[in-house]
Amino acid sequence: MSADLAATAPAEMAHDHAHDHAHDHAHDHDHDHDHGHADHGHHAVVENNFMGQPNIKLAMWAFLGSECMFFGSLIGTYFFYHGKALVEPMPDKVFSIGITSISTFLLLMSSLTMALGVDSMKQKKRDMARNYLFLTALLGAAFVGFQVYEFSHFVHLGLKLSTSLFGSTFYVMTGFHGGHVTVGVIWLTILAVLIDKGKLNPVKLPINVEVAGLYWHFVDIVWIVIFTFVYLLEFIQ
Amino acid sequence: MSAAHDSHAEHSGQPHSHKAAYIRLGILLTVVTAVELALPFLKTYPQIWDAGQPMWMPLLVALSVFKFGAVVGEFMHLRGDRGIYKFLFLSPLAIAATIFLLLSTLAMRLFLPFGEGLAVTAKDVQAGYVKATKSSGAEPPLADEKFNAAFADAKSKQFVDGKAVFVRVCKVCHGDMGEGKPALGLNLTDDCYKYGGTFKDLYTSVADGRAGNKMPSQGSTLKSEEIRQVVYYVRSLKGTNVAGEPCVGDKVAD
């Protein structure tokens, strides 16, 4: 409680200071609007930095920047060793474009529902946002399901993590991506349940949904790269 | 869809919804993905698909870059958002892309075909190795690191090692210089290869032998490492044209 109040003062000042700028961020205004009818009784605000940007969004973009390098090196390593595996099965023997394209489509559509969820939240349509978040999590879970099927199918064909350079680099790369999707599914589900139960502070809600959305879209763009460079190029060479 | 637009909408109360624009973009992304998927299937239509044309891969890359940009710019709202977010995301992305390009180029440089005009690819080596292990069944799979080191080092070391194997095993029938011996071994120094001139062909000849002549299977007496070495060496003899046995089989260009 007192910590919240303490946090309010500098944020309020920063807010006033930033107000001169035409491009002052939207969330300060959300704060103004919701402050009056926040039924929780405490003075929660979206904590901004001295330039008026919400810390949590800044942190997420910085995190996603580091994730770019993380996945960049994993995909780069896959390509460095591409075609250097000694033992069967080779990529063109195990990849199934049909199944992978279905899961790719599901993940792409989940990005759309996520964007619609963030949009609904900004318009304060909380129930609609909750539904979109559930739908996004469901599509993400379906994607993970397809990946589990794909992995077990590959293992059945004799490709394991330790089989060859292809197995090692492929499973590490796609496995980390699948792990990210799983984290995203859990995150979105928790968020949707909390929205449903009304446990989240309405002031912080839009930014929380927006930040979860940023993470989710990032997971989607990583898959865009993997699908094109790893799966499709295998068939186009 | 820009930030200026956004903040105006927010100033006037309820923010403007992007729902229609998002759905349009979703449909566009689906169409682009469908086009990407159609490209590999075009392979079955040679009149449309020309594998020799290098345009397909850049096209695929361009389409995925478009999708990437659309999701980041519109769904993640980076296009109209503040500069600090763009900096935080795009600068590591540029570094990641550089690492990616460097690794891919480095891979091509390191694993170039080795030997003068010797068109051996890693795929040939794999195929030859797999066939050899399947036929002999005794040799455990070679560790990848060992293979890569050997592959990169092939130019210098393996030709020497290969010659040692050749002197020990092959020269009895193929002659001191690889010129061949009547009714025993073919001439290995001309441009002709009776069973083909790829790494895979030569590997198979050594590992499995060739039915209908005196070439025996060495798959059980030589280690796969030794077979590879001697194949490198034998392939390097091509074009030395030592006088001996006549040309048998098809001429190989490189």
Features:
heterodimer; A: 237 residues; mainly alpha; Four Helix Bundle (Hemerythrin (Met), subunit A); 2 domains; 8 helices; elongated; disordered N terminus; B: 254 residues; Cytochrome Bc1 Complex, Chain D, domain 2; 2 strands
Descriptive account of the structure:
The complex is a heterodimer of chains A (237) and B (254). By secondary structure, chain A is mostly helical. Chain A has 2 domains: 53 residues, no CATH class; 182 residues, Cytochrome c oxidase, subunit III, four-helix bundle (Four Helix Bundle (Hemerythrin (Met), subunit A)), CATH 1.20.120.80. In chain A, 76% of the residues lie in helices and 0% in strands. Chain A is built from 8 helices and no strands. The radius of gyration of chain A is 22 Å and the shape is elongated. The N terminus of chain A is likely disordered. Chain B contains 9 helices and 2 strands, in the order αααααααβααβ. Helices cover 58% and strands 2% of the residues of chain B. In chain B, helix 2 runs antiparallel to helix 3, helix 5 packs parallel to helix 8 and helix 8 crosses helix 9. Chain B has a two-stranded antiparallel ribbon with strand order 1-2. The longest helix of chain B is centred in the middle third of the chain and has 28 residues. Chain B has 2 domains: 77 residues; 130 residues, Cytochrome c-like domain (Cytochrome Bc1 Complex, Chain D, domain 2, Orthogonal Bundle), CATH 1.10.760.10. In chain B, 32% of the residues are buried. Chain B is mainly α. The radius of gyration of chain B is 28 Å and the shape is elongated. The chains are: A mainly alpha (237), B mainly alpha (254). At the A-B interface, helix 3, helix 5 and helix 8 of A face helix 1, helix 2, helix 3, helix 4 and helix 5 of B.
Detail the topology: elements first, then pairings:
The complex is a heterodimer of chains A (237) and B (254).
Chain A: H1 2-18, H2 26-37, H3 55-80, H4 91-94, H5 97-122, H6 126-156, H7 165-197, H8 205-236
Helix pairs in contact in A: 3-7, 3-8, 5-6, 5-8, 6-7, 7-8
Chain B: H1 3-11, H2 19-41, H3 56-75, H4 83-110, H5 122-136, H6 144-152, H7 154-174, E1 192-193, H8 199-208, H9 224-236, E2 250-251
Antiparallel strand pairs in B: 1-2
Helix pairs in contact in B: 2-3, 5-8, 6-7, 7-9, 8-9
